[in-house]
Amino acid sequence: MVLLTFNVVNIEAETKTGLHISNEERLQITVDNTKAILRILDIHDVKATFFIEVSLTDRLQNLIKAISSQGHEIAFYHKNSTLQEIEEAKKSIQESLGKQIRGIRRKDHELSLESLKMMEFNYISDIDHANILFPFKRLKRDTEIHEENGLSMVPESISPYSQLPYNDFVFQMFPMKYYRNMVFETLKNDEFVLIYLGTWQFTDFNKHRFKIPFYRKLNSGKKIEDKLGDLLSWINEKEMATSRMKDYIF
Question: Which pLDDT score, from 0 to 100, does residue 140 have?
């Protein structure tokens, strides 16, 4: 099973000297990038899970409704939010959609599992911090879903082919032929492969002049749109099953 997921977050990078991009403009970039992803998923008839950064939920109501109406799962991405902010956002989005928010993604483990369980989350997707060296850091850890405090804990997938994780940087930097081999070999050994990308990767950095490292620009924008389309075409060609997180876990 291929679990395709996206982190919907604003770009926080500074702009180049003499330029200014307002918070509203940053938000619009995120919206436009997410809509580009939705178009690609619709073309290939693939459903995914979108992890919306908690602090953005109140300003992305229309986008969240659009994502949900196309059959994708809405979940939360925890960055710097408090438990109270998470709870309030969860209630608001659930009332707006008429659907339960079942999942939350985090990089750090400071959130109380007991508190998340009381908010009626069902699963936690843990991911690591990724930087330019991270894709080349070989990892060995448990990749099976397990339960803690009544919550399903979903770890990052790791390729047995290369011992690399399926994070946003690996997808952006590695040739598609190599990436396909990773996916193929992983599904020979594991029941699922969890892939995640960030909406920031779909930004046209020639148009939006952010001050970012060169490796964040490589294969970004239209190139990563094409790369995602190529991956989904291959998945459909090989008749690989895909699923939203909540459907696979439950």
Answer: 53
Q: Which of 59-63, 155-159, 216-220 has the highest mean pLDDT?
A: 59-63
Given a cut of 60, whether residue 134 has pLDDT beyond it is no
How far apart (Å, rounded) are the C-alpha atoms in residues 246 and 250?
Answer: 6
Q: Are 68 and 96 in contact (CB under 8 A)?
A: no
Give the SS3 label for residue 226.
helix
C-alpha to C-alpha distance for 19 and 47, rounded to whole angstroms: 37
Is the separation of the CB atoms in 224 and 199 below 8 Å? no
DSSP state of 99: S
Give burial (CB, 10 Å; 0-12/13-18/19+) of 181.
Answer: middle
Q: What is the pLDDT of residues 145-178, one digit of tens each?
A: 999 989 999 999 998 888 888 999 999 999 999 9
Sign of the four-CA dihedral 234, 238, 240, 244:
positive
Q: Cβ atoms within 10 A of the Cβ of 167, count? A: 21
Cα distance between residue 85 and residue 103, in whole Å: 15
Q: Which H/E stretch holds residue 75?
A: strand 73-77
Record the tokens describing residue 68, joined without a space.
């949900």
Q: What are the tens digits of pLDDT across the range 142-151? A: 678 999 989 9
